[in-house]
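Lecture 7 notes: from sequence to structure.

We start with a single chain of 406 residues. Read the sequence below before looking at the structure.
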Amino acid sequence: MTPLTDLTGTPVLAAALVTTVLAVLVPLAVWGRVRGPRVLRVGVRLGMVVVAQVSAVVVVFVAVNDQYGLYDSWGDLLGTESHVAAAPDLGADGTGGREISAAPRVRQAFTAVTDDPDIGPGLRLTHLMGRVSGAEGEVYVWLPPQYDDPAYRDKGFPVVELLAGYPGSARDWWGNLDVQTQLKPMTERGEVQPFVLVSPRTTLLAGKDTGCANVPGVVNADTWLSVDVRKMVTDTFRTRQDADGWAVAGFSAGAHCAAKLAIEHPDRYRAAVALSGYDDPAAEPDSIAAHDARLRRTTDPLWMLTHARRPPLTSLYLSGEPRDGYDDGLAVQRAAKPPTRVTVVPSAGGHRVTVWKPMVPQAFRWLSGVVGGPVGAEPSTESSAGRVKPSQSGATPVNATGSSRP
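Now the structure, written as tokens:
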């Protein structure tokens, strides 16, 4: 994005502030100098008042948007921007029958993010075209301090995929939760695993929350995250390919997605962190799953867990307040059977980033206990079972309309 289309960052906020100041100062300077018939004078003065009021509203919106990262661009805000080129039917496992590990490598060029102080240091950015999902969008990556350490040159690092809420931005974990600046000193001290952090775009449809679902003809959001982004990361960076080395974390709508992906794909993710999430997709009115009875049911993490062919080998860290993630987390915990493990942690303070930000260290300490650390570049035979391929998930495979597949 360019400064003209980017709705976040200091330049946009500064421009909005300057415009607001001018909208106030100009009327003060020319109020008594307006000439012409009375109707014209009243109209001009009323127009100046309206401009001043509108500019004040705009600057508040820009400030809030900059703080919470709700919309990245005018296209996101106006609902005119789609990040879906195609949405083929990819079957129950989201691969379309492909052996993903045998597909051509996806080596992506990244650029260092140096002109966006709002999201902190050390980030790399690329724009990925999803070969399987038909979706596309930006992906941010942060590499831990050990990545360039000669002692780790033959090691594959564990990965955590970070998902924003809705509306939201791939920048949110960096700009609002300060995830890399919080974790870097902890990683250097050995308090947490040296995770590679990956934050992909999750808002793929104009004005709609995908719920991280695959819906043929609409969007393949699940495949975008769990296949395309995952393969690009393993092909571009020195990371683990097995499920034991991958986790997914999210807040709000992203928390719902994180739990869903971990339960549905234990062959791709060993753990999930869900901060103030929910089970029923209808908790987000703009969710595409909320308006289809079958899809709503079959993308509910609790339903997926209770209807699994076998309990998935995954661990869940679920947090929230009563009626905002905590109750849903307890329901999942009660339904879980070994080897599924569920930890439920109460939070307080509301549904906001100021609550989730201080939870990052605790959540990543927990992740470090359930996700493996750096290993040799070639995964073992046992670990190779976790590579992305036709699903061996414990969850009952379902198609986009919610019917079970044999």
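The CA atoms of residues 53 and 212 lie 39 Å apart. Keep this in mind for problem set 3.
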